[in-house]
């Protein structure tokens, strides 16, 4: 019989308010927080002790995830393949129609293509769940605004702090005492990858002084602390950092000699990192009056890509990490990956972590309604972040609502059911504790590649992010869902 919160209180003592305040203040002091609208801050929700993963599975993911990034790097520069594979999807999704038009503007078609001068810097987070039956499988690729590496590293440090300062309580709520923590240097490794690219661009022009890094952000951003932690890591290794919104950049960017990107009152820009641009609203500004919505700010992004600058995410990278491209690559035989420079063995390793996906069409809708176990599938559109997935019995009604011209914007994906944590844990949110008896975890592995080559100390791998949530909740985001920050212990 499963323990209830009431019976658990008889088995394990709840945490003292002193402990909760101590660790909550540690989180705030180390930037593990969200900014509030009144310029205050609140700490991110987190677990009191790490989750576990089998060591062999973790080592497999460390090996395969940089291979996925290698594949995506190559696919993102195969412009004919992108346009051919995603044309129908772009016609079914207004936002991706905008992205595809920008891609055509930059790269033309196969008969009229100019060489690109922007230097692709792929900072990617590949999200996995460790399914009870299938093992670890990819949930999605994140190639734009792939943040929270600093929060992932801080969560590892937070659990280490709790273990040192509150050892009895830490052991009481740990899954096992025989596990070992997985190292996590996501903040420094992502910074190293960015700095490597920025320095190479700087050297290309023979400029003196510090390389300059531009982070493109959303106005009134609440996730500024994760962003600032990365900036501090960059500053610590000799990189100047600046932040601007698309609206600001639309007035402040210009071209220098030899296609150099120049920012007003700053100078030449060496690397650009988009923490905005993954949704239509990022290109809208109420103060800009224009006949065609989103034209000015989307053209600002195009303007950046027309310069010699290290860039994440390029429009090509965003297209290559879409749900539709994930489906294309999942359905493709491993042999076809060889066209992008992978070996057959590397292709098989990637295929081993891809969960089954199906396009939405009349035949698959009929199959799903008549024969499928509806709780083994999830319906996804192209949206980033939470709120874009349909589960279980809600899938058929949603499919019935879709017009045929919308089908290509959606995909069916095998639903993953990860292991629940073997013992209950405590989630701390707003300095209050809650017992969670059915916590499951999602692991995001970061990679950094510049011009298709790894630029970290670990062959392209750059740290991890663990987000856990109750199994009963569909939305596991730290921002908007029931998710909490977590870290990882390895078991043999």
TrEMBL record:
Keywords: ATP-binding, Glutathione biosynthesis, Ligase, Magnesium, Metal-binding, Nucleotide-binding. Gene3D superfamilies: 3.30.1490.50, 3.30.1490.80, ATP-grasp fold, B domain (3.30.470.20), Glutathione synthase, substrate-binding domain superfamily, eukaryotic (3.40.50.1760), Glutathione Synthetase, Chain A, domain 3 (1.10.1080.10). Residues 212-320 form the Glutathione synthase substrate-binding domain. InterPro entries: Glutathione_synthase, Glutathione_synthase_a-hlx, Glutathione_synthase_C_euk, Glutathione_synthase_N_euk, GSH-S_sub-bd_sf, GSH_synth_subst-bd, PreATP-grasp_dom_sf. It comes from the Bacteria. It is an enzyme of class 6 (ligase). Pathway: Sulfur metabolism; glutathione biosynthesis; glutathione from L-cysteine and L-glutamate: step 2/2. Its EC number is 6.3.2.3. Its cofactor is Mg(2+). SUPFAM superfamilies: Glutathione synthetase ATP-binding domain-like, PreATP-grasp domain. Belongs to the eukaryotic GSH synthase family. PANTHER family: GLUTATHIONE SYNTHETASE (PTHR11130). This is glutathione synthase. It comes from Vibrio panuliri. The lineage of its organism: Bacteria, Pseudomonadati, Pseudomonadota, Gammaproteobacteria, Vibrionales.
